[in-house]
């Protein structure tokens, strides 16, 4: 008989243990509310009678709001469904000029109503609410709704990152003043406290003066996990101009020109001295009024080898092909074979002489793209006999006997997600699932530094165009700025609400752009560490970023198969290019900023007339508040090239405007 009674006694004990905790929580909430409304004497009396300590005042706002919602809707969960239906009907019956902006509140209201039902333990009603209204939300929110639908119990709310984002951040809705007045009038007339409280506590209205936006304008910038960026987010000044180029005449005298040029100079020796006053190098660049001060970001001093590289780049640019809608670039395609689903990333050095590939098996492979093979440095004993003051010391220290066409770098113990060459080609960065960034010497062909700044996989790494600095992005929702000579990161850029999938340096190295799974693009100031731009419009994860050569336009693309162009001077979306049928992995601009090239998982390369697009946009004359988004893709698509079952993972324009493409062949059997 005693054993038969045990099951009956156990639940009673559990309830008795829970009851004091629930009462104490309610008392703490009541105390916080009294304090909030300055009822201090009442609060002190309650604290003494309930034997509460001062820590009771530390009750979170989240608990206070939950308690209030429970009391307001206690015993009648149907008020949520009725309130949502009323709001939906109000939106549908509103005038067309206001309807689309009013519709922006439906999704955040739906989310918070569902969370309140789960929090109040109305599990059956929450499931019904989700099934009834979830499918009616916009398509770009469906992935988040699926993750939301998994949460069906109150205990599951605490450790969910998506729920935490919704509870700790206000959903931003951009709305004209007239539209907001109409919404406020509706909320007051209907007197639905549940709906009114959700709007007041969880939505932020970024109000502007003027005519309400149409559906096309709203859809173009919609899709962010917690709404649009506010005007305050994009208010800071951005120095998007380029830095003044240094004087290269002195370095030009020591540069070895191409073989055909050397032969010509040998036959006409008096012309040899003319390289000292090459007109290409004596061009004085104008000071860009939008460029940052030279001392704003401490950039490394140019070494002699850096100057020689810049001189060679200028000389190569003299042979650059002028591209336009009639003269399209030549394309050199490198296809990686026998590595289906094994290649994660690829990159080509700025002078187009080396290719690096990151593999899923944790290896990094480097190929030479020119007849000159990859050589290693001589041994220490052999280096003692070399004159370090000689002009060709960099060639003398390399051992010809060690030359190989390809080399493999071992050190990571997880898939390699991205690789990046330094401007002088002596270093290579790689990042991996093993949470490290490795710096490889391309003279020693070994790892010289392993940077560890996060306990999460690192998805992207990029060298600055000026060298020395590099940027990373990670699953921990942050991006970081590093210097090669420092084990610790110099800046931590925090603000994204999900994985930061890609990053890119601005051409002047003062800013870093990031793209995230929260479907936002952000721009960060390397000097202050602050966010200076927040741009929404993508409907899926952002996988690749690229700045235009003049520095004002940022291109982004990803899983939504769209290419978006942003004017970072104001933080506005100015154009959308559509046409790809699969995720876009790579974007690049031609060296003269006339062509924009995109490569995708759909095994296609698309070339877009960027110069015509910018001409039609007239960025300086654009409406600052509601800019027109150019989306006539067929007008600007120049050509689409298909590969043979080979997704495009990297595109690159050489200094002479030859386009290089890296693909990974997928055999039909592996699909």
UniProtKB/TrEMBL annotation:
Record CDD domains: TAF5_NTD2, WD40
Ribonucleoprotein found in the keyword field: no
Domain of life (superkingdom): Eukaryota
Keywords: Nucleus, Repeat, Transcription, Transcription regulation, WD repeat
Region: Disordered, residue numbers: 1-22, 257-297
GO biological process: transcription initiation at RNA polymerase II promoter
WD repeats (start-end): 409-442, 451-492, 493-534, 535-576, 577-609
Subcellular location: Nucleus
Predominant cellular place of this UniProt entry's protein: nucleus
GO cellular component: a single term: transcription factor TFIID complex
InterPro entries, sorted: LisH, TFIID_NTD2, TFIID_NTD2_sf, WD40/YVTN_repeat-like_dom_sf, WD40_PAC1, WD40_repeat_CS, WD40_repeat_dom_sf, WD40_rpt
Molecular function GO terms recorded: RNA polymerase II general transcription initiation factor activity
Gene3D superfamilies found in the cross-reference section: TFIID subunit TAF5, NTD2 domain, YVTN repeat-like/Quinoprotein amine dehydrogenase
Location of the TFIID subunit TAF5 NTD2 domain: 75-203
Protein family: Belongs to the WD repeat TAF5 family.
Protein's UniProt name: Transcription initiation factor TFIID subunit 5
Species this protein is from: Macrosiphum euphorbiae (potato aphid)
């Amino acid at each position: 008989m005693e054993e038969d009674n045990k099951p009956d006694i156990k639940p009673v004990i559990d309830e008795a243990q829970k009851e004091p905790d629930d009462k104490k929580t309610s008392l703490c909430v009541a105390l916080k509310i009294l304090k909030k409304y300055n009822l201090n004497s009442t609060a002190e009396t309650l604290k003494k009678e309930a034997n509460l300590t001062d820590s009771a005042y530390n009750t979170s706002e989240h608990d206070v709001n939950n308690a209030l919602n429970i009391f307001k809707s206690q015993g009648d969960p149907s008020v949520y469904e009725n309130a949502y239906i009323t709001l939906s009907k109000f939106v549908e019956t509103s005038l067309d000029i206001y309807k689309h902006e009013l519709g922006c509140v439906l999704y955040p209201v739906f989310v918070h109503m569902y969370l309140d039902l789960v929090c109040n333990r109305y599990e059956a009603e929450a499931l019904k609410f989700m099934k009834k209204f979830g499918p009616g939300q916009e398509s770009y929110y469906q992935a988040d709704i699926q993750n939301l639908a998994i949460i069906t119990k109150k205990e599951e709310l605490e450790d969910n990152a998506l729920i935490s984002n919704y509870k700790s951040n206000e959903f931003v809705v951009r709305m004209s003043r007239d539209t907001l007045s109409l919404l406020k009038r509706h909320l007051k007339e209907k007197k639905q406290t549940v709906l009114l409280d959700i709007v007041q506590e969880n939505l932020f209205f970024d109000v502007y003066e003027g005519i309400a936006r149409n559906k096309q304008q709203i859809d173009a910038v919609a899709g962010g996990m917690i709404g649009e960026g506010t005007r305050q987010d994009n208010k800071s000044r951005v120095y998007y101009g380029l830095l003044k180029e240094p004087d290269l005449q002195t370095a030009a005298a020591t540069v070895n020109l191409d073989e055909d040029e050397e032969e010509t100079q040998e036959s006409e020796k008096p012309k040899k001295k003319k390289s000292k006053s090459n007109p290409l190098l004596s061009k004085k660049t104008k000071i860009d009024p939008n460029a940052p001060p030279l001392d704003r970001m401490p950039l490394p001093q140019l070494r002699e080898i850096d100057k020689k590289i810049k001189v060679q780049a200028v000389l190569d640019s003299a042979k650059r092909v002028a591209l336009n809608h009639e003269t399209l670039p030549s394309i050199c395609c490198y296809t990686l074979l026998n590595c289906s689903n094994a290649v994660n990333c690829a990159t080509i050095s700025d002078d187009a002489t080396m290719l690096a590939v990151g593999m899923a098996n944790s290896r990094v492979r480097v190929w030479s793209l020119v007849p000159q093979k990859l050589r290693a440095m001589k041994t220490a004993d052999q280096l003692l006999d070399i004159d370090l003051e000689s002009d060709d010391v960099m060639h003398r220290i390399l051992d010809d006997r060690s030359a190989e066409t390809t080399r493999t770098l071992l050190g990571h113990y997880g898939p390699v997600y991205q690789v990046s060459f330094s401007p002088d080609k002596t270093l290579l960065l790689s990042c991996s699932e093993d949470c490290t960034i490795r710096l490889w010497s391309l003279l020693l062909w070994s790892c010289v530094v392993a940077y560890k700044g996060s306990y999460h996989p690192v998805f992207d790494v990029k060298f600055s165009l000026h060298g020395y600095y590099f940027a990373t992005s990670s699953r921990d929702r942050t991006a970081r700025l590093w210097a090669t000579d420092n084990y610790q990161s110099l800046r931590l850029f925090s603000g994204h609400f999900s994985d930061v999938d890609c990053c890119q340096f601005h051409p002047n190295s003062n800013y870093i752009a990031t793209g995230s799974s929260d479907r936002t693009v952000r721009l960060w100031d390397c000097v202050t560490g602050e966010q200076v731009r927040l741009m929404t419009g993508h409907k899926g994860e952002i996988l690749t970023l690229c700045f235009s050569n003049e520095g004002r336009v940022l291109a982004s693309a990803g899983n939504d198969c769209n290419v978006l162009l942003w004017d970072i001077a104001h933080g506005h979306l100015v154009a959308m290019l559509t046409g790809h049928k699969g995720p876009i992995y790579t974007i690049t601009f031609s060296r003269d900023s006339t062509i924009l090239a995109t490569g995708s998982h759909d095994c296609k390369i698309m070339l877009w007339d960027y110069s015509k697009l910018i001409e039609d946009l007239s960025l300086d004359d654009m409406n600052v508040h509601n800019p027109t988004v150019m989306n006539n893709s067929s007008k600007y698509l120049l050509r689409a090239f298909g590969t043979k079952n080979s997704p495009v993972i990297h595109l690159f324009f050489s200094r002479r405007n030859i386009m290089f493409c890296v693909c990974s062949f997928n055999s039909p059997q592996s699909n």
